[in-house]
Amino acid sequence: MANTTTIEWTDATWNPVTGCTKISSGCDNCYAERFSERFRGTPGHPFETGFDLTLRPERLEQPLRWREPRMIFVNSMSDLFHKEIPTSFISKVCDTMEKAHWHTFQVLTKRSSLMRNFLRRRYGNERGPGHIWFGVSVEDGGKKSRIKHLQETPAGIRFLSIEPLIGPIGKVDLTGIDWVIVGGESGPRARPMRPEWVREVRDQCISENVAFFFKQWGGLRPKSGGRDLDGEDWSQFPTIKSNYADAAE
User: Fold this and answer.
1) Which segments in the chain show pLDDT lower than 50?
2) Is 162 left (phi over 0), alpha (psi -120 to 50) or beta?
3) Alpha carbon distance 197, 188 (integer Å)
């Protein structure tokens, strides 16, 4: 678990799984893969096997030992709903998140139908705990089926991560969506993001009263282009009951 992170919309990261495989064009320049593969073959390093999918059961209970409440991005270096991760292991991750109610957990996937089906089995028709947020990544207008799957998911909070935004999204049905993040790609092969694509999403969020967070323009480095959008800093979060008040219980 990383006590700090440069990701603007969270406080910390927790990786009970690392490694992944590409599933769509948004994965082409994956920052997690680029970082992990630098250490492939380094004896004793956490990423000695690079970006190969790796379960890390020794990390399953880390959030329970972290008593200071914070937002935690789950599997920043993987995808919890990768088809090769056993459902029994995913269940253990969820067990920990449910027990650690003083934190807020943010889970993001591109395997949207697998997430929906798992959470339906776990929570039925009821929305899950409010301190566990589940979201999907959507990189362009061709991946909006993931949003439909998210809307069918019994999550406590539902969010979209439109990052990296590599093409226009178009009209988006935001029914049941609590939060939208937009960001440009970063790294040596970063694809440009057009301002009108960002404005299109922002304006729909404003119209539908959905919290909007603009993360970055992107470039060679994540902060190369800053995060100013039309003279404003867009850092909205969904309005929910704070879980932090439960920390002392």
Assistant:
1) 241-249
2) beta
3) 22
- State the pLDDT at residue 5: 85
Query: Is residue 237, in this structure, part of any structural domain at all?
Result: yes
Residue 50 lies in a domain: yes
Give the pLDDT score at 243: 42
Look up the domain containing 37 and give its range. Answer: 15-246
Q: Is residue 221 part of a domain?
A: yes
Residues 6+ apart with CB under 8 A from 248: none
Domain-located, residue 198:
yes
Question: Quick one: tokens of 158?
Answer: 């539902």
Strands (E), 86-210: 104-109, 132-137, 157-162, 179-183
Q: Report the number of distinct structural domains present in the chain.
A: 1
- With contact defined as beta carbons under 8 Å apart, do 38 and 51 qualify? no
Joined tokens for residue 30: 């994956």
Amino acid at 26: G
pTM of the model: 0.94
Q: What is the pLDDT of residue 167?
A: 97
Phi, psi of 74 (to 5 degrees): -90, 130
The β-bridge relationship of strands 232-233 and 228-229 is antiparallel
Each residue's pLDDT tens digit, 60-75? 999 999 999 999 999 9
